[in-house]
Amino acid sequence: DGGITQSPKYLFRKEGQNVTLSCEQNLNHDAMYWYRQDPGQGLRLIYYSQIVNDFQKGDIAEGYSVSREKKESFPLTVTSAQKNPTAFYLCASSILGQGPSDTQYFGPGTRLTVL
Amino acid sequence: QKEVEQDPGPLSVPEGAIVSLNCTYSNSAFQYFMWYRQYSRKGPELLMYTYSSGNKEDGRFTAQVDKSSKYISLFIRDSQPSDSATYLCAMSDAAAGNKLTFGGGTRVLVKP
Questions:
Q1: How far apart are CA A71 and CA A27, in angstroms?
Q2: What is the pLDDT of residues A70-79, one digit of tens each?
Q3: Which of A23, A114, B3, B112 has a CA 20 to 30 Å removed from the CA of B93?
Q4: Are B109 and B84 in contact (CB under 8 A)?
Q5: What value does the CA radius of gyration of chain B take, rounded to a whole number of Å?
Q6: CA angle (B52, B57, B63) in 5-degree steps
Q7: What is the pLDDT of residue A101?
């Protein structure tokens, strides 16, 4: 089955620790995205990547880092510099070049809680 | 002021009723409009995608865009308990490429 997988589903972190969230897609999509969702708020873009070995900051990149070494994978690291990391993290992917606004498809999400 | 405003709800309706959802926005450059459905603790799934003004129908779902009023709507006919979810509007403009701006979501409860 084609799709986007995120792991783990739930993650607990102590203050001061870095944690890495996994995102893998087998849809052969070019672009991948990371969003953060807080209760009652819309999704906010953290980072996105349109091609391997290249990525851009979104609206709330501070305290986060990413890498794109493979087309299928776009891991997100939440660093200790992120002051309020407890949230629901969503990964998405899209094909580029099908139109001016390419449809994004989402993974199931990772819920991160800081203890 | 947020770029995209959406009433958080919850919006509670009896089974079979029409569900009416809407978003207002401030950026007149937005041209592409989407509605996503998100079940609790799951990722959003795309329901409808429209470009510019007008209506689009897909089964029980109708999306409307009124660019002059900066207002978009989603109607769900013959609502079912399985339609209970949070509905997110999202939009983008050509200059922003693939960057989407989301509303905060409206929680819908369809009671049997």
A1: 10
A2: 999 999 999 9
A3: A23
A4: yes
A5: 13
A6: 50
A7: 54
